[in-house]
Amino acid sequence: MISAVAHPNVALIKYWGKSHDALRIPATPSISIPLLALRTETRIEVAPTHDEITISGQPDTSGRIGRWLHCLRGDFELDIPPLAVRSHSNFPLAAGLASSASGFAALTLAINTLLDLDLDTASLSRLARLGSASAARSITTGFVSLDGQASTHDAWRARKALDWEDWPLGVCVAICSHASKAVSSADGMRLSRDTSPAYTAWLEGNRRMYARAARAVAERDFDALSAAARWSFFGMLTVMQTSDPPLRYLNASTFAVIQAIDALREQGVPVFFTCDAGPQVKCIHLPECAELVEARIQAVPGVQEVIRACP
Ligand code: PMV
């Protein structure tokens, strides 16, 4: 039996939209940080006849992992035997906390060990990306970029931009609902690409922000990173809201937390926020203001739980 662990990640520069759906090639590069207190552990062993997949004790009814294994065995000619896969996460699934990222990353790492593939980070991230594009960034920890020069499978891989120990930021997550999302990221992205009049401007603007954020990470410039991340979040939100029909992943408590964090920022507290395809708010801050940020978001009406995700 092989076991592997991976952490979900939160994108500071988002990806929203694909240039190739089946190969899950993002239409825009992204940069993420890990949520180190959240983890998915996946255990695998060879099964007698066919894949048996359970997620948190329940059979995987979505069929997503089965389809991914089928693709690795077929299109990518990996000699993977039938597998018994058991995956457990210590955080709510399908609520915008990137459970698919840590799930596919842990499974990719486990398969790499089981089959003695000895793949490097770039190759592992390409395989994980075929399951969920953000999973490519969970193959390693630290500040991780996912980019590529061409719209091809080989070009798009994750790379560690900076070790986490070299700039360990604080991350607090405000859980604003435990409900699963109504529209999957994949469906939402397709809708945005096909219907939002803001989509092309989003791709161009987000590329510029990616370059700025990469520089900010290299220079450990919190204000510059915060400005680029805020643009990326609001750019993605604009595309979601101008899709037809509009995509609504956030709720009233999400906006109340956003206001609270903005008020802290205006008082000079080094903190900013980002959200994904779900109502949870990820607050990124310098480590010395962890208690202040946590207490402030805990006090927002409707916040159900606050998770200290880093350190
Ligand atoms: O990994 P996917 O394909 O489920 O999409 C994730 C999309 C966002 O979380 C909204 C943004 C991102 O870059 O992680």
Q: Enumerate the strands of the largest sheet in spatial order, edge to edge or round the barrel.
A: 1-6-9-7-8
Q: Strand content of the residues, in percent?
A: 15-25%
Q: Given the structure, what is the number of helices?
A: 8
Counting DSSP E segments of at least 2 residues, the number of strands comes to 15
Low-confidence stretches: none
What structural category characterises the helix and strand content?
alpha+beta
Could you explain the architecture of this structure?
This protein is an alpha+beta fold. It is 36% helix and 23% strand. It contains eight helices and 15 strands. It has helices at residues 64-73, 99-114, 121-129, 185-195, 199-219, 222-241, 252-266, 290-298; strands spanning 2-6, 9-13, 18-20, 25-26, 30-34, 40-46, 52-55, 58-59, 83-89, 143-147, 157-162, 170-175, 271-274, 281-285, 305-310. The protein has a five-stranded mixed β-sheet with strand order 1-6-9-7-8. A hairpin with a 4-residue loop joins strand 3 (18-20) and strand 4 (25-26). The longest helix is centred in the last third of the chain and has 21 residues, at 199-219. The mean pLDDT is 95. (3R)-3-hydroxy-3-methyl-5-(phosphonooxy)pentanoic acid (PMV) binds at residues 11, 14-16, 30, 100-101, 132-134, 185, 276-277.
Question: Keywords, please?
Answer:
311 residues; alpha+beta; five-stranded mixed sheet; four-stranded antiparallel sheet; 8 helices; 36% helix; binds (3R)-3-hydroxy-3-methyl-5-(phosphonooxy)pentanoic acid
